[in-house]
Write a structure and sequence with these properties.
single chain; mainly alpha; Substrate Binding Domain Of Dnak, Chain:A, Domain 2; Four-helix bundle copper-binding protein; Csp_YhjQ; YHJQ-like
Length: 117
């Protein structure tokens, strides 16, 4: 049997990796990218929390997924500002956008089904 949350768990894990790489690179650069770093850190924490809640089938999964989607959307928008000149920001923006979409879908699914209740 396939876990209906597996695609969301997978993209959240990919998002954590992309955001960690982005933070590391942004901190090493001398350009004022503090917004990028801050949003990536929020995204890392919320994606990690989202994975844990979904993996254990928490009744709060939908709420955490919604918050994670919001954080990923903001992070994607911030990283996209640097995407033309910065490969790690381009990749982070892309993955965060996908994660925001998947987390939104997962939140809707959790609210409508019994898998997260």
């Amino acid at each position: 049997m396939t876990d209906p949350n597996q695609s969301c768990i997978t993209i959240c894990q990919e998002c954590v990796v992309a955001c960690e790489a982005c933070v590391t690179s942004c901190l090493a650069s001398a350009g004022g990218m503090s917004g990028c770093v801050s949003y990536c850190r929020d995204c890392i924490d919320l994606c990690t929390l989202c994975v844990a809640f979904m993996a254990r089938g928490s009744t709060l999964s939908a709420e955490v997924c919604k918050l994670c989607a919001a954080a990923c959307k903001v992070c994607s928008e911030e990283c996209a500002k640097y995407a033309a000149n910065c490969e790690h920001c381009r990749r982070c923006a892309e993955i965060c956008a996908r994660c925001a979409e998947e987390c939104s879908k997962c939140a809707e699914h959790c609210e409508k089904s019994s898998c997260c209740k």
